[in-house]
Each structure stands twice: as structure tokens, then as C-alpha cells.
Task: structure prediction
Amino acid sequence: MKKQNLFLSALLVSALLCACSDGGSTNTDTKTADSTGVPAVTTEPAEMEPAYAADDLPDELDFGGATAHIFGWEGSGNAEFYVEEENGDIVNDAIYLRNRTVEERLNLTLTYTLAAGAYNDRAAWVKQVTQSTMAGDGANDIVAGYSMSGATLAYNRLLVDLMELDYIDFDKPWWPDSLIDEATCGGKLYFCSGDISTNMIYMLYAVYFNKTMAQNYDIDPSSLYDMVRNGEWTLDKMIALSEGLYNDLNGNGQKDAEDQFGYTTHSVWSDTFFFASGLRTTTIGEDGLPVLSEEFGGEKTQALLEKLVDVFYNQSDMFFTNDSNQLVRDQFMESRALFATTEVYFASNYLRDADLDYGILPVPKYDEGQEDYYTVASFPYTLYGIPVDAGDPDMSAAILECLASESYRTVSPALFETALKVKYASDNDASEMYDVIRGSAVFDIGRIFNDSVSGKTYSMFRSCLIDGNANWISTYEKNEKSLQKAFDKVIAALTEE
Result:
């Protein structure tokens, strides 16, 4: 069983355990002797398995009131690192509780500095961390950056190898297997993520559909959920269901953002087509180290690109834009698109107040021969690392483990089980789909280190779609040598002593 699926149904159990605890006292059912003199019978409480796995940090771990500083990033619009106080919002309050619990368990104080660090600010964020680390004054105990930035720090040898430290247990369910397996290179691992990052959930890709619009076109919403369950939800199926839905709403005789479509998406979200098709930029070589995947430049990628270019540029029912991504959100919220691909946080940040009956599905498979669904996270999730000048790397490691562990038991259930699967899910089927989506998350070391390979591991495919260029093989061949050279440098940086 994949570790990241272990917690998916535990919130209800956890709530029941809390309700039955009676303030922490032990409940027993004791019957006194009756008039016949039958002895009293005492029923001892049954032992129950904990709703969530516990970490193995020593109970006596105590850092003597130390102050630990975390340098993070801001720009995603979603709370992750800290909140000032409880305010009644379930996710906000879970983050607050997590931080207080970590401080109490480890006997230390967490302090945070957040700097602008999203895509357009990532170079400046990396520069701040680099200057601080090179100064060697131990100002930061943990650095937590936008995914591209965390990978850049590792490439520049500014982070500690987490495998050499005490306290972090990467076999625990709060560290997703796919990320740890992909990011470990030559037995070394320089960053981590998972439940510790709310954006790891918020940024997963999904496909939304408009229930009312589906019914208007004789599509039973429940049939879409059944397709997923039966392994029949494929790219071709989504294309077929989108056919005949185009409507030139503004009457200008041109296919544009103001019209109605069967499907819509933005260029920055197009990467998901590649990974959802079971394709990867890298694989593991005979020596156990990552190498560029043959399928990256192969026929399946070529076939996928040809299909997408055809439906986006030669047919009218599917819309693709490189303009503002808000155009796509507006199309869906204004019932001008049956299907739309974007991140999970679209539900919590945009659809929460929308007068719209919608459902959610995983990104479709390439074909029915593909065994599993796959999705990736959009880039604004956080990679956590320990700078090489940290004063006490083992303390930093204990904090990471404790933050992740407590997030797994408090923040993720609040965000995923309650907010997304209940509060922002229109039905039980949608709640089930969230499980499928999160359980299908995959990572790819070529994508993670894209900044260190001039962005080629995502920009080549994305640019072909933007340009309507279906000549993938020739595009890849033109870039293969420079990509290989850059990737070799990444592997060398991650494995050198």
C-alpha cells in the first residue's frame, strides 16, 4: 500500500476517539452485585488502534528552549508555515495547533521569516538564502522554498544530506514514496516534502466538470465517476464528451475565450497531459542513478502531442490559451466549459462561493491499457531543507519530522478530509475522487530540477503546445545534447562527496 493513502479515511475515527475520551479519562462499565449476590462484572475498555500513525521521536527529546528559525516563501495565497492566531477556520486553526504542539514537544520556539518567492521571485529568494548560508552565521535552521528554489539550493550544494541526520524517518507515511524515491540520488537526499506542505495538496492537478452543463447535454454526472472507477476515464473519452459543445457566444465567427467549449485549460497546466499519460522525463539506470528516459523523446510523447495539437488547433470544442489563466477559471465558473483542468485549490479558493454545481475527476489516462491514473503537482509546493551552516542539523531534522508528523495528524485531515472532501465536495462521489487524485500523485526528478536544466524538462512540451507544433521528435532531438549535458551536471552535483 502506498504510504500517502494510509490516512485518507481516518478523520472520522479520530473524531470518534476524541469524543469518547471524556477529557482523557478511562471509561469503564462496572456493574454492582445484584440482590442474588451475583458478583459485579467489570468491562475493561477495548484497546483501539490509533487513527493515525505516530512518529518515533523520543519522548525525552528536549532542546532546552532553543529558538529555531525557518526561512520560507510566500506567494501561493495558501497558508502553510504559520498563522498569527486561531480564527475559526479549520485549516488555519490546524496550522496554529501544529506549531504549538511542535514547540511543546521539542521544548523550543519556532520563528519564521517569509519572503516573496513564487515563480517570478524565486531567483531573489534563492539569492537571499545563498548569501545567508555563505556568510556561515547559522541564521536559518530550516529553509523552505518554492519547489524550483529548493531544488536549486540542492544543486548548488547549500543543503545538508538528510540521510545522514538523526530523527527523520522517510519510511513514515507523511513522506510520500514517489517524491523520496525520485529525489534520492546515490543514497543522498537534500530536501523533502509531503504532509508538511499544505501546497502539496492544494497544487495537485485535477479535472473539474460542470454537472448542470453535463445534464443539459445528456451526460449523466454519475457516469463520469463510474468511468473513473472502471478505469475507462481516458483522454479520448474526455475529447469525445467535449465534442459538439462549442458555441460562438460572442458571434464574432472566431474561436476565442468568450465562447463556450467542451474543455478548457491553460498552457501552465498542460504539463499534466504528459505525466497523466504515464510518461516520465527520467528513469533509473543500471547504476541506480537517474537517467533521461527514452520515452521522453519517444513515439508515445509524439503521439500525445499530435493528438493535443489537433484537438486544440484544428477542432473547435477544446480551448487552450497562453494568456491569463483567469480566462480559464472564468470560463468554468460562468458555465462556458464542461471540463477544465487546474489545481485542487481551485475548489477552495474560487468555487467555495460560486453558484455552481460541479464535480471533480482525476486527470484522464492516456488509454484504457494504462493501469493507473497519474497526476503531478503544479510547481508552487514547498521543498524543505537544512542549510549547510545550520547550527544544529539534528535539531533541524527533529523539527522537520515533528512538523510533518503533526501535519499528517492535524493539518492534512483538516485540509483534505474536511475542507476539500466534505466542505467543498458536492457529493460523496467527488469525495472519493479526491482520494484517487491524491493517491495518484507522482514526482519526476527531471521536473523537480527543471531550473538546473534551463527549464527544458517542461518548457519543450509546453512550448510545442503553445506554438501548435506537433513535431516532438525533431524538437527533442534539437535539445537532447544540451539537456543531457545539463542533467549530467545535476546528477554530479547531487552525488559528489
